[in-house]
């Protein structure tokens, strides 16, 4: 199954400063900003677009339980994950299973834009946090069809 980069997730400590940098230095456009208190997310997210490429800025909203807060404590701010878009997430999950690649089942969810996503187990990806996602309702905010 074909995979293309959907977005890059970047863990940040200060969302306002990061948004300003992306706007003023990179010429980015803020295409959405929202807060998710869902278990396993607990972050404020700013979606920045530069010439069709999306970067999600992720700032923890709970320094005790947010996975972004844990990431920053362990590795510092910076690239958190790379998201690959697949045509059909259900089929992609079956393919991963046949390859012996595990997912983090508790990360499976649909976000506010209708993007279904799940993270692969970093043990099986040489430590890189990789997200697989699809847009079954056709409402792809990233505009990259």
Automatic annotation (TrEMBL):
VOC domain residues: 4-135
Pfam families given in the database record: Glyoxalase_4 (PF13669)
UniProt keywords, alphabetically: Metal-binding
Metal-binding found in the keyword field: yes
GO molecular function: metal ion binding; methylmalonyl-CoA epimerase activity
Gene Ontology BP terms: L-methylmalonyl-CoA metabolic process
Similarity comment: family membership: Belongs to the methylmalonyl-CoA epimerase family.
Name of this chain's protein: VOC family protein
Origin organism lineage: Bacteria, Bacillati, Bacillota, Bacilli, Bacillales
